[in-house]
Write a structure and sequence with these properties.
The chain has eight helices and six strands. By secondary structure, the protein is mainly alpha-helical. The longest helix has 29 residues.
Length: about 280
């Protein structure tokens, strides 16, 4: 990282806010992915998959990265963000998360019932796709930086950030496929959120800037022009799946209730047959 770059010009509280935001998005995304795997109808399945992709890719991954950019400054240069690369950096992780969730949660058919059983091949493929999407998001965010001069990056730290992205992708898909306990999912979401923020700082600490005072002031958006509306909309949007998750019946309780209903029906049928035999 070159001397012209400052990571924490507004204080280290930005790191905490980024971790909390990532935690909310990842936890809701994991819970939505779990719901999609046991959804009884295609409509409910695709709805949960959509919320899972937006929560993981948009709120859990993309939004914390731009929150962390609040304290990012370049001495001697105005810093702006390119709108096109911002849009790409948002679309890539959301699309990758949606594709990964589709792979790890295949549609039920007459040969395949809704299940939470682990299929290693699907889990591995989904983890790689999500990890590549997270790495692509980081590269797009770096590409969105516009300064009076040029921006370079250290290949070692960029590769380390990409490696963290692959690890995060694997952890998220594993949590969706394996973890039945809400407490364990909470712990996993916190670990993943911390790793996502660490991924951001690992990559950004590898940046270098060559400032050219004679260069024209860059065009683009300021970070708060991006962050404030997106943060508000993201927090409002995530309340919808949170509400749905709170209102949705617990899977284990629903299965026990269904089993109890089946046993009651069998008992009534046996009693009815017994009465018929007595009448005869």
């Amino acid at each position: 990282m070159s001397d012209e770059l400052q990571q924490f010009s507004m204080g280290t509280w930005v790191v905490g806010l980024a971790v909390v935001t990532a935690f909310i998005g990842v936890f809701v995304g994991i819970a939505s992915g779990r719901k999609a795997m046991t959804a009884p109808s295609p409509r409910q399945r695709y709805l949960w998959l959509s919320w899972g992709a937006l929560s993981i890719g948009g709120i859990g991954a993309w939004l914390p990265h731009y929150i962390a950019m609040v304290g990012f400054e370049v001495a001697g240069s105005t810093l702006r963000y390119n709108v096109l690369w911002i849009a790409i950096s948002f679309a890539v992780p959301v699309f990758a998360a949606g594709l990964a969730l589709l792979i790890v949660s295949p549609p039920p058919s007459k040969h395949r019932r809704p299940t939470t059983s682990v299929e290693i091949s699907r889990l591995s493929g989904a983890a790689v796709i999500l990890g590549v999407g997270l790495a692509g998001m980081h590269l797009a965010i770096v590409s969105s930086l516009v300064v009076q001069g040029s921006v370079g990056f250290d290949p070692v730290l960029t590769a380390a950030a990409a490696g963290l992205g692959l690890g995060v992708g694997a952890a998220i898909m594993w949590s969706i496929s394996v973890l039945d306990s809400r407490t364990l999912r909470l712990v996993a979401a916190l670990v993943v959120a911390s790793a996502l923020v660490a991924m951001h700082y690992t990559g950004v600490f590898g940046l270098s800037v060559t400032v050219d005072p004679a260069a024209p002031r860059p065009d683009g958006l300021e970070v708060f022009s991006i962050l404030f509306p997106v943060f508000v909309l993201g927090m409002l949007a995530v309340t919808i799946p949170i509400t749905a998750l709170l209102m949705a019946p617990d899977r284990v309780a629903a299965e026990l209730e269904l089993e109890a209903d089946m046993l009651a029906a069998e008992s009534l049928a046996a009693e009815s047959r017994g009465r018929e035999l007595e009448l005869r």
